[in-house]
Amino acid sequence: MLVRGSLQGDEDLTVLGRVEGSVELTRTLIVENGGIVKADVEVRNAVVSGIVVGNIIASDRVEVTET
């Protein structure tokens, strides 16, 4: 699945496919293994197991897993 554009919300978001554009969440972004985010990201927390191309701004933490 491919999503292009701006995503905004106040829920957690799990990416298994591909997101291009921008992501702004008040909660957590989870990029699963195999997920691709080409976006500037502004979130509370980010957990990255896949690929992120862009800037991540997190108010609490960013976790990059081994995969």
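Next protein, fold it too.
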Amino acid sequence: DNLKGNKVVPPPNTVRIDGDDPYLVVAADKGTATFSDIANSVSMAYGFWLGDAFASGGSAGYDHKKMGITARGGWESVKRHFREMDFNCQKQDFTVIGVGDMSGDVFGNGMLLSPHIRLIGAFNHMHIFIDPEPDAASTIVERKRLFKLPRSSWTDYDASLISKGGGIFERSAKSIELSEEIRKRFAIGKTSVTPNELIGILLRAKTDLLWFGGIGTYIKATSESHLEVGDRANDAIRINAAELNARIIGEGANLGVTQRARVEAALGGVRLYADSIDNSAGVDCSDHEVNIKILIDQVVARGDLTPKQRNALLAKMTSEIGLQVLVDNYRQTQAINMILFDPMGVFDNQVRLMRMLEKIGRLNRTVEFLPDDETLIERAATKTGLTGPEIAVLMSYAKIWVND
């Protein structure tokens, strides 16, 4: 349906079974700016009331990659995990293994967010990058260069900056000869491995942070089959949550870890939330943009602001919007951690909330991988409350219920 002023105008020659519903926005997921502009031009050609607020991130919207907003939101999670370990990742060196490359929005922006990142390994669909003893100061400069280089890949990385024994390897190679330095860094007994074996070694490696920026599901629960994961392309390299040796997982990308695996990892002492928490900043930024455009367009319609002035105003607000979005990420993780601080103090309430939501048909625990009654009795007996990933899901349901 459309809106003309405050009046809802249904589409002509259409039988409507539902009520009035003039609100529809779309997210153009790949190449956002280009596709958003196309979607918005269609919206305007039809005289749809949202105009160019129909698809966020167009040329008169907020460019997520330029703002680095999704990665910066995820980094709020990472910083909080480190703070809980009494460690300042903005002032102290730490090791990272990553999934992605510097041309990607979330991986690229993420790997520039601290001058103390020591990226010891990373992989994408084509290459495996290994730097056994990286120098944080010089490597961030090189990553910045790659990020700015259009369509860069790991092979564009200046090999002279890679520490002794490191290198960039093709995933299409039959086997990879391992230097003494790589073997020592990752405690590998063999002198040569296949590319898939090497990726498996990286995913199992001892590291402070495992940062997801690429596409694919790389960690499953021990109880899950590869078939249940539903990502055939990565069956050969996927590992079980029990094999993880990372202290923290940052999910800049979606579905890097299955929900069951998140819970298993959290119970095993890994610090993580969920992709819906870590990478929510992009969607949050779009929400801000759409709402601001709806508001300001009323002023434009009255003639108190020209479209050109409106666009200038939107651009001027970029850093403030970014800040508002990051405050959401900061508070969201704070709320989860306050619950984690006293898990048994709120456990009964959480159980009652889940049962109440189930009773009114608002929640299906099986679908959301929340603990069944038997598991809850076990958790109560061992004084193990809900994990961060479980709290993240339950909190979302609680918010929807409170909002309604």
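About the second fold: The two ends are 23 Å apart (CA to CA).
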